[in-house]
Amino acid sequence: MKKNFTIAFILCSIYCICQEKDVEIEKLLTTYRSYLNSNLDSSIYYINKVKDVSIKKENKFYLAKAYYGLGYCNYQKGNIKNTEYFVNKSIPIALESKNSDVLSLAYNQLGLVNSDKGNYETALKLFLKALDIAEKNNLDKNKSYALANLGNLFETQNDTVSAIKYYQEDYNFTKEKNMIVEQFGSCSNLALMVKNRDPEQALKYFNIALSIAEKLDYKIEQFTIHVNLSHFFLNNKKYKNPDRALIHINKSKELIESIGDPSLYFYYYYNLGIYFGKKNQTSESIKNFQKAEEISKTSGISLDEKISLMQDLYKAFEKEGDYKQANFYQQNFHKLNDSIFTLKKNKDITEIITKYGVDKKNAQIQLLNQQKELQARKNKLIIISALFFIFLLAGILYFVHKRSQFQKKLRHQENINHQQEKEKLLQEQELKKMTALIEGQNSERNRIAKDLHDGVAGDLAGLKLLLANENKQLNNKNLEKIQDGLSHIFQEIREISHNLSINNIKGKKLKDLLFNLQSSYQKRKEFAFEMHIYPENAVDDLDETKIIDIYRILQELLNNISKHANANDVDLSINRHNDDINIILSDDGIGFDVSKQGVGLKNVQERLQTLSGKINIDSQKDNGTTVIIEFKV
Fold first, then answer.
1. β-pairing, 580-587 with 625-632?
2. Does the keyword Coiled coil apply (predicted)?
3. What is the pLDDT of residue 131?
4. What is the DSSP string of 5-54?
5. How many angstroms separate the CA atoms of 468 and 297, rounded?
6. Phi, psi of 217 (to 5 degrees)
7. 438-447, 508-517, 620-629: lowest mean pLDDT where?
8. How far, in Å, CA of 216 to CA of 524, rounded?
9. What SS3 class is residue 630?
10. What distance in Å separates the CA atoms of residue 178 and residue 140, rounded to the nearest whole number?
11. Residue spans per domain, the chain
């Protein structure tokens, strides 16, 4: 019985420390966590309560937790679509409320979803993002969680070297931080990974994991390690020692009695059978195999383990010389391989027989009911005839009344429709006005860009050439400095011209424009600029108008950061779910008074109107600025 001890995240955000704890919400969170391992539906009920109370109290810190919790529960239930919806919803709220714990967990969860789908490259980026957030915010448990997930990701792809690297890093980190629970998981993972290539190290990790499980009084985990160690000493070429294996087999028996799960005796008797087989005591081996067989008939033992047992039984009888029994178990072995098909076939036949019996009874009941209905119809016919005229008269009166009401409602609805048409027309006129304004701005930008490039830049180039010719004979150092200054000004004017011109944007993808913008700021070394787009094709299908508007908006916001924020780190994140896109731009600068907005931010809001989008700006003095933009494609 093998078991990979990846530490699954112990409830969503148990260790998250709130800025100001809310007693009511914390109580709901405690109840939510208590049901996570026993009743997911109850957990979903209480985390929904957390969401409702957080919205009512306008507490976004807890709201981010609630949306992540809903995503986590849906993942445990196997509902991937809802998982992605709720986790994506938690990310911008976590950013806005500076809930780095939920942010790290959210990227980890999205990494698991993509790993399950086979999108390994995307999963890798998400796990690394989660790891980066955990390290920057000293979230030790989240860091261990991300490292374990990275190890699992590479193990899934059979990249054992990379898998062992991350498991080893997780082990070293949890050991350094004295994180006992997490260290247990990393030890177990490493033991199972290296048992074939480095059995000495595997034995070391098994023993460390066992000592931790004993210290934490983890009974089922102790049982599993003893089973794995018995396999180790029975099958490893270098450390093969059946007597040492027997010690662990007997230890596993003692633990079964403590755990109180009789089905675990299957593994005890099965391993004991293997032990006696290694000791060439075939009859004892068969006795224990058959005891395991009896347990497998009433317990939830997996089909693979039953098939393996049948194979060992027929080999043991064959070795004993009992070919009749060997043939019997060999046939059972083949039957079990085909059992899935047989079960389905038998189920189909049973359904057909049952349906036939039900149809026959239904036919008899239907005949009796028809006879009764015929008599009842005769009795009712007279009554119905008498009532018909009464209902007819009442119906006519009701129709007249309803028609009068309908006409009143119709006139009222016509007034409403007229008013809505009027409002729609005004909105369309306002949108046309705004579009025309932006088109005028674009046209004016192009004109200014052309004048700068062809006029001012050309004059400066000529002036620089004239100075150079004059200075050939004078060889004046001050004139050389003036020439260098003119070159610098000429380069800045060209850059401004390119940024203003719409011709440099048309026909290009938004992703490429943004990467060029990122590269430009990185070359200037004003601040560290990171950019993340999830999924990778999130903005690939945008039309040219939206590309221009979004690019100009981000260009304006980054320009403001460059001029006023005095920032060291800037992070741009673009997330998309179905037709909803949210953009988060955050910096660690000096912040500003949101109530005082300049021309640049007004231009941003005008462009957002054409996108039917909305913007939210959160800025605090000396604590950076976060801008969240939301719109539909």
1. antiparallel
2. yes
3. 95
4. -----SSTTTTPPPSS--HHHHHHHHHHHHTTTT-HHHHHHHHHHHHHHH
5. 98
6. 60, 40
7. 438-447
8. 54
9. strand
10. 11
11. 508-632
Q: What is this structure's pTM?
A: 0.57
Q: How far apart are CA 187 and CA 265, in angstroms?
A: 26
Phi, psi of 615 (to 5 degrees): -130, 145
Specify whether the CB–CB gap between 568 and 527 falls below 8 A. Answer: yes
How far is residue 551's CA from residue 499's CA, in Å, rounded to a whole number?
Answer: 11
Helix, strand, or coil (residue 577): strand
- Number of helices followed by number of strands (H, E) in the chain: 22, 5
Q: Residue 515 CA to chain centroid, in angstroms? A: 25
Whether the pLDDT of residue 366 is over 80: the answer is no
- The Cα–Cα gap between 77 and 89 comes to 19
- Distance between CA 433 and CA 439 in Å, rounded? 10
Task: Give CA–CA dist 528/508, Å, rounded.
Answer: 25
* Residue 167 confidence (pLDDT) above 70: yes
According to the 3-state scheme, what is the secondary structure of 583-627?
Answer: EEEEECCCCCCCCCCCHHHHHHHHHHHHHCCEEEEEECCCCCEEE
Task: Give the C-alpha separation, 113 to 508, whole Å.
Answer: 31
- Here the tokens at position 78 are 């196997």
Q: Please name the residues in contact with 590: beta carbons below 8 A apart, sequence gap of 6 or more.
A: 564, 565, 566, 621, 622
Mean pLDDT computed over 509-529: 85
Hey, CA dihedral for 115, 117, 119, 120, is it positive or negative? positive
- CB contact at 8 A, 316 and 279: no
Contact 530, 116 (CB under 8 A): no
Amino acid of residue 631: F
| The residue type at 35 | Y
Q: Which residues contact 568 (CB under 8 A, 6 or more apart)?
A: 527, 528, 588, 589
C-beta neighbour count of 238 within 10 angstroms: 8
566 is written with which tokens? 């005095």
**In whole angstroms, what is the distance from residue 563 CA to residue 427 CA?**
35
Structure tokens at 183: 């260290």
Instruction: Report the C-alpha gap between 189 and 167 in whole angstroms.
Output: 7
Radius of gyration of the chain measured on its C-alpha atoms: 37
Among candidate residues 239, 227, 148, 152, the one with its CA nearest the CA of residue 195: 239
CATH architecture of residue range(s) 508-632: 2-Layer Sandwich (3.30)
Residue 276 is inside which H or E element, if any? helix 265-278
Identity (one letter) of the amino acid at 597? Answer: Q
Note whether 336 and 306 are within 8 A (CB): yes
For residues 141 and 359, give the distance between their C-alpha atoms in angstroms, rounded to a whole number: 61
CA distance 350 to 50: 47
Least confident of 69-78, 262-271, 397-406: 397-406
* SS3 annotation, 382-433: HHHHHHHHHHHHHHHHHHHHHHHHHHHHHHHHHHHHHHHHHHHHHHHHHHHH
